Amino acid sequence: MRLRGKKNRVSLESQTDLVVLEPKKLKGKWHELFGNDNPIHIELGMGKGQFISRMSANHPHINYLGMDMFDELLRIGSRKARTLWKEEKNSDEVPNLFLVRGNVEHLEEMFEPGELERIYLNFSDPWPKSKHAKRRLTYHRFLSMYKNVLNERGEIHFKTDSLSLFEFSLNSFSDSQLQMKNISLDLHRNGLREDLVLTEYETKFSGQGMPIYRLEAVIGSEAIREHRSRVAEAMEKSKRRAPDEDAAEKDEPVTEASSEE
Ligand SMILES: C[S@@+](CC[C@H](N)C(=O)[O-])C[C@H]1O[C@@H](n2cnc3c(N)ncnc32)[C@H](O)[C@@H]1O
To answer: Which residues lie within the region annotated Disordered (predicted)?
Structure first.
C-alpha cells in the first residue's frame, strides 16, 4: 500500500476523539468509550479507512472500529473520516468511530469475550506462500480468537479478490465448524452493488473487472438460530410454491447471494 509523505501531518496523539493508540488499556471498556451500548463492529486491517468511514456515516446506531498496524494509515483514515462527516453531516465530530493502532495477533488482549458483534475482513493480505499460511487472517488460530471476542449475534464478513485466499478460508471456516452464508464468487457480476460499501482495494480490483469473493460466517448462538430459522422458512416457502415457479428457481440457494452491509 503506497502512503503519502510527511507533509501536513496531524499528530495521532492529539486526536484522542478519533484515534486509539493503546487499545489494550480499553479491554472491557469499549462501550464506555463510545458512551452507549450500541453494537461494536470492527474492520481488521482497515488500510486507508474508506470502508469504515463510510459505514460510520451510513449507520449512526452502530459503533465502528477500524484497526491497522501503521500510523500513516491511521492518519490518512482520520482525515478521510473527518472530511466525510464534515461534508455529509456538517459535523466536526465522528461520534461512532475510532481508528485503532493494533495488531490482530493481540486481539484477545484488547477485547473481552463477547465485546464485539461483527468482524469485517476486507482484502486481507493473502500471504500466498504456504509457509506463511499461519499469517492469513482466516487461519484457524485467528478464527478461534474471533469466536472468543464476538457476542451471541456475532458474525464475520469476509471479502477478497484472491481466489487462493478464498479457497483457503472456506476450508478454514469449515474446519472450524463455522456456518457460512451469503457466499458469492463474483459479488459485482451485475455491476457494482449499490447496497454494499466498497473498500479502497475493492474499488480498484472490481474496476479492473476482477471478481470479488465474499462470505459471511455466523458465529454467535443467536445469529445461528436466526439464520437457521430464515433458511427453514425459505425452504418451507419454496415447498408451497407452484411447480412451474419451482422449476424456474430450482438452482437458487434458499438464502440471498449476499446481504447488505
Ligand atoms: C490489502 S490491505 C486492505 C485494506 C482495506 N481493508 C481495503 O480493503 O482496502 C490489508 C491491510 O491490513 C493490514 N494488516 C495486515 N495484517 C495486519 C495485522 N496483523 N493487524 C492489523 N492490520 C493488519 C495492513 O497494514 C493493510 O493496511
So the answer is: 230-261
244 is catalytic: no
Q: Please give the distance, rounded to the nearest whole angstrom, from the Cα atom of residue 38 to the centre of ligand 1.
A: 25
* Ligand 1 closest atom vs CA 124: 10
- Give pLDDT < 70 ranges for the chain: 1-8, 242-261
List the domain boundaries for the chain.
19-249
- Distance between CA atoms of residues 240 and 258, nearest Å: 24
With b for 16 or more beta-carbon neighbours within 10 A and e for fewer, the 216-246 pattern comes to: bbbbbeebbeebeeeeeeeeeeeeeeeeeee
Chain centroid to Cα 232, Å, comes to 26
Tell the CATH topology of 19-249. Answer: Rossmann fold (3.40.50)
Ligand 1 pocket by Cβ (under 6 Å): 1, 45-47, 67-70, 73, 103-105, 122-125, 199-202
Q: What is the pLDDT of residues 212-247, one digit of tens each?
A: 999 999 999 999 999 999 999 999 988 887 666 655
